[in-house]
Amino acid sequence: MYWxxxxxxxxxxxxxxxxxxxxxxxxxxVDKPKTEKRKIHKKKIPYGGGLAxxxxxxxxxxxxxxxxxxxxPGIGLRQLLALFFGGLVLMIGGYFDDKYVCTPKRQIxxxxxxSLIVLFFGIKPVFITNPxxxxxxxxxxxxxxxxxxxxxxxxxxxxxxxxxxxxxxxxGLVAGIVLIGSLVIFxxxxxxxxxxPDVALLTIIFVGALAGFLIFNFHPAKIFLGEGGSLFxxxxxxxLAIISGSKIATTxxxxxxxxxxxxxxxxxRWQKNKPIYLGDSEHLHFRLLxxxxxxxxxxxxMYVIAFLFGITTLFLQSSQKIxxxxxxxxxxxxxxxxxxxxxx
Length: 344
Hints:
Elements: H1 2-27, E1 30-31, E2 45-46, H2 49-67, H3 77-100, H4 104-107, H5 109-120, E3 127-128, E4 136-137, E5 142-143, E6 146-147, H6 148-167, H7 173-189, H8 197-217, H9 226-243, H10 248-271, H11 284-290, H12 295-312, H13 318-343
Antiparallel strand pairs: 1-2, 3-4, 5-6
């Protein structure tokens, strides 16, 4: 059943990717080469990949919700509306940014609104796994009118969205990494101790939408995600991690290298007295590209890293995942120090 819906979504994703690529090209909403030093493509490429993923995912999901009970009991209308309206805000903001190139101060409004929409619909964890004892009950911990869970969800989603936004520098990189992360959540939801067939179905539909886009986005890309798409992919992966039962540590292991790299880049920009929102070639994927690897080699290397850390989550216990995350943190610290030494 799962792979049937994956295949259907994959085909619909191909259709919408071709459709929105054509529409955005006709509207002139394209990424032009050499508008920034770090852009490496040689010809104009349309945006619209995010719209393709968005429409593919929600058309399939809402049809499934209306005409079947396969998403019950775990996925209800409340969760779907939270994902839809949060994603819609990102699509609207992304469209205006792709067309008019908004300032960072205006860009951040839409991720904030998307995160607040998720909170408004009550999508948040009640418990967080404690590797050494009873789970932490977040419902009893409040900070003013908000609970600790509200703060965790808000900063988690903002972190995920900006990780995928900053990661979107090479063909196929973001869509592939998010696809791997979603597949890991899918397989975890099918394991006995976390069995959630409804969440697994929702996740594999998202994977199908990503795959339909990725075949046109892998190098040489024929279409880009755009601002909305780069944010929406991180938003969805972050939401799926919450809906699937707070699989935040699992998701962090998959996307940990890009997320820690974002932290490293922000620190480097701060040390150099540069605005943290100003794009540059400091990111790990650009560093690897400048070291002599090709785009495809860099992207495949990032895929392999995400896959290896992700696959371990199928076998590790909670305490072992913490150790793996610490190892990942130390690894990125070493990488950061090595890059700093090379600049001296």
